[in-house]
Amino acid sequence: MRIVIVGAGIAGLALALALHRSGRRCVVLEQSRGFAPVGAGVQLAPNASRLLLRLGLGDRLAEVSVRPARREVLEGADGRLLHSTPLGEEAEKRYGAPFYTLLRSDLHALLLEAVPEGTVRTEHYVTDILENSDEVALHCADGRQVHGDVAIGADGVHSSVRALLRPEHQRPSGQTVYRGLVPASAAPEAVADPGVRVWIGPDRYFARYPVSGGRQISFNAMVPANPPGPRPWTAGGRVEVLDRAFEGWAPEVLETVAAAQWVGEWVLQDRDPVPAWTSGRVGLVGDAAHPMLPLFAQGANQAVEDAVVLARC
Question: Which of 100, 178, 205, 209 is catalytic?
């Protein structure tokens, strides 16, 4: 079977690796020329980590990640502990696999390392998909065509494959998320006693946890979407936005923001659920199929689940 995957993100590479481990070959078409680190941290829960361990990535995961001892939810203004969920060994015992925190770019890199050389073809921007009773043809912007028996859209929330299957408009979620990285030296207590800490308040939250084997701290902050106007394009401008958004919150929040070496901004969009993730010879996985807001910290996890289940099917 000729399997063509569109998109070399977490979902696409996880699917390629799962197919490879089951003895099936595939090709992954990626529109970009290369891979630059995108985003900051990701929480890899046992529902996904157990699958990545089965795919043989356990040693590499351990090298680039942290295993937090607990997840704590705190009141934003005064830092009062509201709830604590044990992770670490207790979570592994309960769920059968570790809970990791790591950089999204590290997860992407270890997946890319694990797929056979030549699987990913860069600079292939798919603009159209045509299918008949025998095959599917993927047309690229530069005139090239790639033929297969099936095509899988793993090209994220802005999926061009989904747009071809189901033309629709995204809708604003009303929320913006800022993600950033801080050197561990700026928050040594976050590494000495590693955990996921989430401060919550009306219409916003702030979360931080160690990544990179404890060398960095990742944070994400969700706030109401800013009104129309100029965007803060620099890290400094985004720090100023966060300072205003979390004024009066717990000192740890503001200290983490002040120490940020990098801050990215994403205005979040949402989509309505679709009744089916397949149509004929074309299917969708990950955010292309079911984009979700960061509140559940499950986007990457669901992408891995999709990939392993689809490869099995």
Answer: 209
pLDDT per position as a tens digit, 186-208: 888 888 899 999 999 999 999 99
Measured CA to CA, the distance from residue 157 to residue 289 in angstroms comes to 8
- Provide the 10 A C-beta neighbour count for residue 170: 13
Residue found by looking up tokens 């795919």 in the block? 55
For residue 230, what pLDDT band results from cuts at 50, 70 and 90?
A: low
Structure-token pair, residue 113: 């390392």
Distance, in Å, from the CA atom of 175 to the CA atom of 221, rounded to the nearest integer, reads: 10
Using alpha carbons, list the distances in angstroms from residue 248 to 16, 211, 232, 258, 265. Answer: 47, 27, 22, 14, 22
CA distance linking residue 200 with residue 28, whole number of Å:
40
Tokens 């690796």 correspond to 17
Active site residue 178: no
Which two tokens mark 182?
């801080």
Q: pTM for this structure?
A: 0.93
CA 295 vs. chain centroid, Å, equals: 12
